[in-house]
Amino acid sequence: MPTPSSRYLRTAFIVGLFVILCIGGFTYKHISELSQTSKVVKDNYSLRSELELIISNLKDAEIGHRGFLLTHDSLFLNPYEESLQKVTSNLHKLDTLIVSNGEQVEKLKELKGDIKKRFNNFDKSFSLAKDDTILTQDLLFLLHEGEIRMDRIRADITAMLDLEQRLLTHNQEINEKKIGLTPLLFYGLLIVTLVILLLAYFKMSKDLKALKENNIELEIFEKLTKQSEIVSNTSTWVWYIEDNEFEFSDNLYRLVGEEPQSFEPTLENFYKYVHEEDINHLGQQINMMMREEELPFTTYRVVHKDGTIRHLKAYSKMMDDTEGDKKMFGVTIDVTNELENYRIIEQRNQELERTNKELSAFNYVASHDLQEPLRKIQTFMSRLEAKEKDHISESGQLYIQRMKSASARMRMLIEDLLQYSRTNTSEKEYLRTNMNMLLEHAKTELLDSIEEKQATIICDDLPTMDVISFQIQQLFINIISNSLKYSREGVPPIIEITHQEVLSKDVEEIKDSLYKFHHKITFKDNGIGFEQTYADKIFLLFNRLHGKSEYSGTGIGLAICKKIVENHKGVILAESMPNAGASFIIYLPFLK
Questions:
Q1: Which of 72, 309, 319, 449 has its CA 20 to 30 A from that of 463?
Q2: Coiled coil located at which positions (predicted)?
Q3: More confidently predicted of 290 and 279
């Protein structure tokens, strides 16, 4: 697309060319008018000259006429005949000089009539003249008539000269006006042309300055591009399709182990560095690129002169430049380090998989082998307490009770650790699930504790969500169990479960989430509560706010809740005040 600068310069050139053409047209018109004026002046001069010659020739004719009348010598008739021919010639020239002027044409007709009558008078006087007699009365009459005709001819010529003078004066006035306006017009057009040229000059100067700055920036960009190619192990190349020629960047030579521009950029020369096992595959990809004018991501190996093997990845895309020429722009990247890192990641993934298997084996041992001795210990203590109770001292019975309590806590700890471990390592299979059903299952699981505490659970209608069902059910169990455990003495627990949909941006803790909407599920109780300063610590593993003698538990339940919510890409928060109950707020994302 043309730039504003090119459009401006093109417009200035067109306007300047138009002004020059106008100047040329006005100049031609002015010269034509001057030429016409000169012709008018010349014709006027010729006409005046011919009219004066007519008078002169008529006078010559009169002289010859009178000489013949006085002397009857035929010699005087020669000037008369010559004058007649000259007058006829003068009249013919006048016909050509005053063709376009109607008034002059009429006057010329009158003049011709008077001259004809004058010569008729001459002819009649010649016939009356006799050699030896004096002038007769008729001849005298003809002579007087001749004088009158001659005066009329002079009057006709004078009228024609006056009319021609007026026409000349009129034409001169028109010409002077035009000549007076012409310099002003030329000067104005020259000023306009000069202004346009000056504006074009300043614009070109500004564009040249901008072009120099752009060239400097391009040079800097080119240097940065070359440097970035070296740092990032990338290179570029161009295939000029119509000419079937290639252009390689300097770093492409370095990627094959050569100095920049050390060989001609052709496919044949480049193939010399490709690993022999990859030449056929790369050749097929290049042929497909030439047919389809696009090269998908292609990986191949090159061999340096020292035997080093490097892995390269190439990609190209068709682009048309501003002149309509087709070019294929390509990028080639050294991905050797990426492949090495991928192999390392694969090895570490395998190690992690082995570790997970070992952890699963440990879970099996913990759930069976560790619990089996514990069950035996509890069994033998029960038998000892039942059969040997009368033979054991009070202090011994106290020790047995402590042992039973410790083994019960250990069993609970093992079960909670297994539950936490399963939360971390279980497969995360999301299913469309009715949350109300999971809540009912949780309440059924805790039915004994709910009845014992005489607890009341009030719940909103919960939505259907994509969740890991058994984890969400465990989440409900742990939060409700926590509210039952930390209820106030003598006060029946009341647990309110509410639900609402919220915009992520409106909640500080989730405003940076990738999801626009979240489900907000709140568990609020009327229990003993806790200080808000401990709101974050209660979700830590093995963290307890109360002593073992006050409330049972291992300090793992809420940590499991946090892990389950994180598995669902959500957030769990706690809000509380001492003796004012506690609220557990859960945000789970969803797409609306």
A1: 449
A2: 335-362
A3: 279
First to last CA, the chain: 44
Residue 542 has pLDDT above 80, yes or no: no
CA distances, 551 to each of 39, 401, 546 (Å) = 132, 17, 7
> Mean of the per-residue pLDDT values for the chain?
78
Q: What does the pLDDT look like over 386-402, one tens digit per residue?
A: 777 777 777 777 777 77
The vertex-563 CA angle with 558 and 567, nearest 5°, equals: 145
Is 537 in contact with 558 (CB distance < 8 Å)?
Answer: no
d(CA 129, CA 109): 31
Count Cα atoms within 13 angstroms, Cβ side, for 8. Answer: 14
Nearest to 36 by CA among 188, 143, 168: 168
87-114: pLDDT as tens digits: 888 888 877 777 666 777 788 788 788 8
Beta strands in 42-119 (DSSP E): none
- Can you tell me the distance from the alpha carbon of 433 to that of 428, in angstroms, rounded to the nearest whole number? 14
φ/ψ of 249, rounded to 5, equals -75, 165
Read off the pTM: 0.43
Whether the predicted pLDDT of 565 surpasses 60: yes
Average pLDDT, stretch 454-476?
Answer: 89
How many whole angstroms separate alpha carbon 232 and alpha carbon 426? 40
Q: Which domains does the chain have, with CATH numbers?
A: 4-193 (1.20.1440.210), 232-340 (3.30.450.20), 427-590 (3.30.565.10)
For the residues of 510-571, what is the DSSP string, one character each? GTT-S-SEEEEEEEE--S----GGGTTGGGSTT--SS-TTTS---S-HHHHHHHHHHHTT-E
